[in-house]
Amino acid sequence: MLNRSTPNAPPQTALTDPEIKLLDHLVKDRGANRAQRTTISHYVVKIARLGGYLARANDPPPGNIVIWRGLSRLTDLESGAALGAKIMGN
């Protein structure tokens, strides 16, 4: 809902810094300019891509199920990264 009301808001309004770093590392940017990479709408598409959204030119915006799948996967990845850092001592 935040993406719909203020798509140009910074991603920190809805995501934590570790989530943003994981998304930047796992989901590569596709042709977005630098100003667009710092908006919440850009990160919503990254989350949707984790959930199976293809982000093609003529695709409709991602739906609730795709966003839910992406958030679920992001949560699992974040837990694994935190656990790995704790075990490895980094």
From TrEMBL:
Database matches in Gene3D superfamilies? Transferase Inhibitor Protein From Tn5, Chain
Q: Name it.
A: Transposase
Taxonomic lineage is: Bacteria, Pseudomonadati, Pseudomonadota, Alphaproteobacteria, Hyphomicrobiales
